[in-house]
Amino acid sequence: MPNWTEEQKQKYARFQEILEMGKQRYIDAGGNPQHYRAGFKGQDYLTDEERKEATKIMRQMFGISITNGYVYCQGRTWQLPENSSLPKE
Is the distance from CB of 1 to CB of 12 less than 8 angstroms? Predict the structure, then answer.
């Protein structure tokens, strides 16, 4: 994180904040904090809105984009499968 811009640091902080909200809900529901599984729908205790926001932030932070059914990341490109649940745009 030493070379990150202020905007990148803010995005990362927001991402961490979202994950902490889910973890706290998990703990409040009686879960073991050491077994919290962030990012697994149904196990992460995030709302759909929070999960979408976290996904958007991760894609922005790591340069991942999806356009016309193709994923672009770190100079590589691949086509999404027809049955992919990821948005095509």
Answer: yes
DSSP secondary-structure letter at 86? S
First-to-last CA distance in the chain?
29
**Residues 12, 13, 18, 22: is their CA dihedral positive or negative?**
positive
Q: What is the pLDDT of residues 26-73, one digit of tens each?
A: 999 998 888 887 777 777 889 989 988 998 898 888 888 888 889 999
77, containing H or E segment: strand 76-79
pLDDT tens digits along 73-85: 988 999 988 888 7
Give the whole-angstrom CA distance, residue 82 versus residue 6.
Answer: 38
Whole-number Å distance between alpha carbons of 81 and 57: 23
Dist CA 50 CA 16 (whole Å): 11
Against a cut of 0.85, is the pTM above it? no
Residues 80, 59: Cα–Cα separation, whole Å = 16
